[in-house]
Amino acid sequence: MIIHSYVQSLPFKFISPFNGNKGHCNQCSFSIPQKKKLRSLSVNVSSNCPTVNVLNDPIVPSKRLPSYYSKIIQECIDSGSFELGKRVHAQMLGEGIKPETFLGTKIVMLYARSGVLEDLYVARKLFDEMHERNSTTWNTMILGYAKMGEHLQVVDLFFRMRESGIFPDKFTFPSVVKACAALEDFDGVRQVHGLVFKTCLSGNLVVGCSLVDGYARCGSIDDAVAIFENIDEMNVISCNAIVGGYVKVGRWEEAWSFFLKMQELGLPPDHFTFATAARICSSLRSLEGGKQVHAKLIISDFASDVFVCNSLIDMYAKCGDSESSLQVFELMTERDQVTWNSMISAQVQSGHFLEALMLFQKMHTFGYKSDRYNLASALVACTGLAYVEMGEEVHGSMVRNFLDYEIITGSALVDMYSKCGHVDKARQAFEKLVERNEVSWNALIAGYVEEGEVQEAFKLYREMELAKNVEPDPFTFTSLLTLCADQRNKDLGKQIHAHLIRIFGATNIILETELVHMYAKCGCLNDAQSVFDQMVERNSYSWNSLIEGYEQNNQAERAIELFKCMQLEGTEPDCFSLASALSACINLSDARKGKGIHGFILRNALENQGVLRYLLVHMYAKNGNMNYACKAYNCISDMDVTIQNIMVSAFVGCDRIDEAWELFNKMEERNIVSWNAILMGFAKNGLKADIFAFFQRMQEENVEFDSSTLVTLLDFCASLPSLAQGEQLHTLAIKKFTVQDSVVLGTALVDTYAKAGAIEKARKTFDEMNDRNTIAWNAMITGYSKHGHSEEVLLLFEQMHNEGIYPNDVTFLSVLSACGHTGKVEEGLKIFISMLEDHKITAKVEHYTCMVDLLGRAGYLEDAKEVIARMPLRAEASTWGALLGACRIHHNAELGQVAADQLFALDPQNPGHYVALSNIYAVAGKWDMVEEIRNMMRIRGVTKDPGVSWIDIGNETHKFYAGCQSHPNNKEIYVMLRHLTLRMKELGYVPDTKFVLSNAKDLEDEEYFIQHSERLAIALGLISLPKKSTIRVFKNLRICGDCHTAAKFISKIMHRRIIVRDNNRFHHFENGVCSCGDYW
Asked: How much is the average pLDDT of 703-727?
């Protein structure tokens, strides 16, 4: 055998107790008299060194027999007087007595049983020098090695014993089995068992118990049970062996059942039984079972046993009953270091970190010292409290005790510094470790993960892979996958996925769940679903991750479907899954499904749990069901500012601004969200005076506005639009924020400037932004598109692609619109095909509408009609409206009538359709059809929207209707317009009357056009604004053809830049030319 060969190679060291002088003790100055008459020997235990005393009836030394010394040495062994026995041996040597087998065995026994390793070497020397040995001699030596834990020597002697012809007996086998078990030599135990069987000793209690224990320690509990059942007599030792065996292999339920069986058999448990039973309950987390063990312990003889009480402290802690742990601790009359360590650990396990640290300090006052175990617990407590200062004190104690290099304490130190945000100190502690295990590596990796340091975390993982005696475990990958999820780093996540498959093959539930979570967070729903589908076992976390992933990625229907599947497969929804399901209902505006979830919440009394109470109110409010929203709101017991803000926002969302205002004024506590909600309400309802007064109140009350406040105000300015107020808000933003670093704020400014007609300022703001997402690019592209700057649109679209920003459906909508407004048919068609084929974006109705407009404006009316006929979606009013507008431009009354008929069916109350068709017939001179359309409008109760134009002069907005005579500057306005008309005629102006829906005379038509609202607003700008300043006019309807022509003449005559924004686009008039190139 390998063990036997190994034992043969071991050197044996013999240390003599003598220094060469016969009868002289090497350990003191005592010398045994050579001729002193002795009868017997005894020990004077009161002296520093045992002495030999002479008793009565002296015997002449020369006549002493070996049996005499045998008796004396046996007395020394029995009384534990090993030093005295060694002196007797020395006297024998002095007298020249050569012991035979019996006496020699006694002398070997003397040295073998002393418990001193050097004496064991002497025993072996004497054993090897014996000419004849019996079974007792061999057993003595084997037992000596066994007691000193020299298991290899035990096995070696056992084989030599057999080779010498001495057959093992019932005293030999227990020691050998124990040695084989300690060496985890299962084959050795089986060989010994075979010999036991041959000697018919299987039923012997001691031998049987040793075999039971041996098999149990080797993990073969079934063999142990088989031996146990064949033992002639059961006792507590053999039962303990079985219970311990079940514990060793983790078969806790069977261990507990066997413990109960011991009670049924009436076998009184000992301290080992109680301690093991407590450990079983710890592992099973069975508090009830633990209390049963404790109750039996109280009436036993081991109630105050330190070993057992320590196990009870640990059991109660792991079962979550920290109070009982503390009671056991306080009632103990005797404590040891393990007791204190167990109690400190118990407090840590229960989350009572402050109490653990207090106990740690109290321990020192009782004279106990810090060791690796209580120091590690103290560090965990510091971690839980984020108490770095105390952690540094514990660190100091570790350094003083040379424990900062050890793996247990060092790993806890790394973990403490990592979790407390001191990853640099964690790294220093890590570097000092002599040995590193998975815990220390994982702690540092987790520290870098917490700090968001992707590269360092992954670099450390690479180092861990190359390190010796350590491999990445599930906790390693859990940290890395969490980092990928938090930073939405799908590429790194896929690398880590490949690594863990290579290391673990089929992954476990923890890693699979983290993979689902990571992929869902990164928006890789196909990958998340694939991992989820392969999971053999799914927990609530994996379900929640996938449901949330679909909900967060605008796949609310799929999220609801999974929520149902989760319940069908027997997984009970928790607050997280319910929250995701409610959010999905909010996104779908599906109150019906939401009510079903609300019912589940009420049945399980969860309506006041965390975010659910907020989501219920939000869900009903978004669906416009304010009655249910109010009921859900009123059911909330502990009202706070968050839920009140949701309710205010809900009222605002349902246009119930008065109720929102009332609740706002009742709120005892408000935050910026509260103020922003009311601000949004004013903006939504177009209350210009109220919104700016409210913002002024915010500033007066020193409410710190945020970027959301300014974004709301800027969006409102964009809707007016108001350039002056937008510029004021920009100034405020620059003072308070770093505008170029805020994507949201920068985008809002770009949009405001673009909609207010200041496209140059929009571009300047856009260029200054340090970070631009797709929405920011869309804002700038849409701005250029509305201003008719198609070249800039196409250049920006190309630049966007070059910078790696992915366009979305909105981007393509703006680009196609720009192509349509400028007649770029070929470019538009290429871009539309690229959207479908290259970018895999599904075209919406709006995209097909742009294609109809693109082709129709360019005169390809039949192609535009064909697009409508072949589009996979049902054409909407906007689509037919584009075709009708094209027919108006190209005077196609027949196709115009077809488009109008569709519009009258889809949107019969829109006056614009009737007006457009009337214009077509008016140009064609078909006044009977014009009159018929007017009659149709009267019958259907459709009235034409009055044209309104407005212009900002300073902070005041001036509105004009056609023929308006009420303006304070009315006289100056009309004088200016008549003067301009004369100048225009001189330059060749002829009124464009083709769209006038009457048979008016030329002069009357001229006066009619002078009174148009946009021309009145332009005139006010000319007389009120500084010379050379840009005039910006806004109109609610399409600018009329004659006013478009007039604006070109006015810009040339007055040397002014005029910008008119109608309901479709911007027109920039400068030096007699319009930016639209008259293609509108």
From this structure: 93
Over the stretch 8-41, which tens digit does the pLDDT of each residue have?
332 333 333 333 343 433 433 333 333 333 334 4
Asked if the structure places residue 334 within a domain, the reply is no
Instruction: Share the mean pLDDT of the chain.
Output: 87
Q: How confident is the model at residue 735 (pLDDT cuts 50, 70, 90)?
A: very high
Residue in 368, 367, 296, 303 with CA at minimum distance from that of residue 333 = 303
Q: Each residue of 760-786: pLDDT tens digit?
A: 999 999 999 999 999 999 999 999 999
763-802 b/e (C-beta count within 10 Å ≥ 16 → b)? bebbeebeebeeebbbbbbbbbbbbbbbebbbebbeebee
Distances (CA, A) of 225 to 241, 250, 258, 759: 9, 15, 11, 89
Question: Which residue among 911, 940, 969 closes a domain?
Answer: 940
Q: Are residues 16 and 108 in the same domain?
A: yes
If asked whether residues 160 and 96 sit together in one domain, one would say yes
Same domain, 960 and 929: no
- Please determine, for residue 696, whether its predicted confidence score (pLDDT) is greater than 80: yes
- Length of the chain equals 1080
Neighbours of 506 (CB within 10 A): 9
616 pLDDT tier (thresholds 50, 70, 90): confident
CB 298 within 8 A of CB 310: no
**Rounded to whole angstroms, how far apart are CA atoms 72 and 41?**
7
- Give the 3-state secondary structure of residue 843: coil
Specify the higher pLDDT residue, 197 or 537: 537
Are residues 19 and 134 both part of a single domain? Answer: yes
Query: Is residue 177 predicted with pLDDT exceeding 60?
Result: yes
Q: What was the pLDDT predicted at 232?
A: 66
Residue closest to 177 by CA, chosen among 193, 159, 194: 193
CB count, 10 Å around CB of 116?
15
Q: Residue 218's pLDDT band (boundaries 50, 70, 90)?
A: confident
Question: Can you read off the two tokens belonging to residue 133?
Answer: 């040995």
Residue 999 in any domain: the answer is yes
Helices (H), 970-1040: 970-986, 1002-1010, 1013-1024
CA–CA dist 819, 806 (Å, integer):
20
Q: Do 142 and 3 sit in the same domain of this protein?
A: yes
Domain identity same for 933 and 954: no
- In this prediction, residue 845 has a pLDDT band, given cuts at 50, 70 and 90, of very high
Say whether pLDDT at 795 is over 90: yes
- In degrees to the nearest 10, what's the CA dihedral of 790, 793, 795, 797? -140
- What is the C-alpha separation between 833 and 818, in angstroms, rounded? 16
Domain at 892, CATH number: 1.25.40.10
On whether residue 574 sits in a domain, the answer given is no
User: Is this prediction's pTM over 0.85?
Assistant: no
Tally Cβ neighbours within 10 Å of residue 611. 15
**Enclosing domain of residue 958:** 950-1074
| Measured distance CA(440)–CA(410) in Å, rounded | 7
Top pLDDT among 20 and 1064 is at: 1064
Domain boundary among 443, 471, 499: 471
Same domain assignment for residues 25 and 161: yes
CA atoms 49, 50, 55, 60: torsion sign: negative
Residues 813 and 856 in one domain: yes
pLDDT at 578 over 60: yes
Distance CA 1009, CA 1015 (A): 8
Q: Are 69 and 87 in contact (CB under 8 A)?
A: no
- Does residue 683 lie in a domain region? no
Give the span between the Cα atoms of 170 and 201, in whole angstroms.
Answer: 7
Number of domains in the chain: 4
The CATH number of the domain where 11 resides is what? 1.25.40
Q: HSE, CB side, 13 Å, CA atoms: give it for residue 134.
A: 9
Q: What is the DSSP letter of 18?
A: B
